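Hey L., structure's done. Input below.
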Amino acid sequence: MQPTAPLFRRLRRLALTTKMVNGGYYKGTGSGSMGRHTKHGGYVLDYAKVRTYVVPKDLKDFKDLLIKTFSSQLTPFVTKNMELLKGDFEGDPKGGLSGERYLEKWKNENGMD
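Output:
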């Protein structure tokens, strides 16, 4: 059974999967091996396989330009003037880490089991 023409056009726009193609197509994840495993459970890097990226020489100037351009527009999502909230653990020498305090609170909320 064939899909209709409009549905077939929509299917063609989707990403190609291994099930759409006969044998011989391997998509992979882009994570190739960077070395080999040893018989003792270690891993030896093969620096010929390690990916290296060339950084432009004027990257520092570019970064400074970006900071000058967008520094007035970039603002944090959270305010820096947030007051510190402390827990209410008076009378308990261990504070919030006390197991007795947890069990007492659990019994008060859920009853005895």
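The two ends are 61 Å apart (CA to CA). DSSP finds three helices and two strands in the chain.

-- N.
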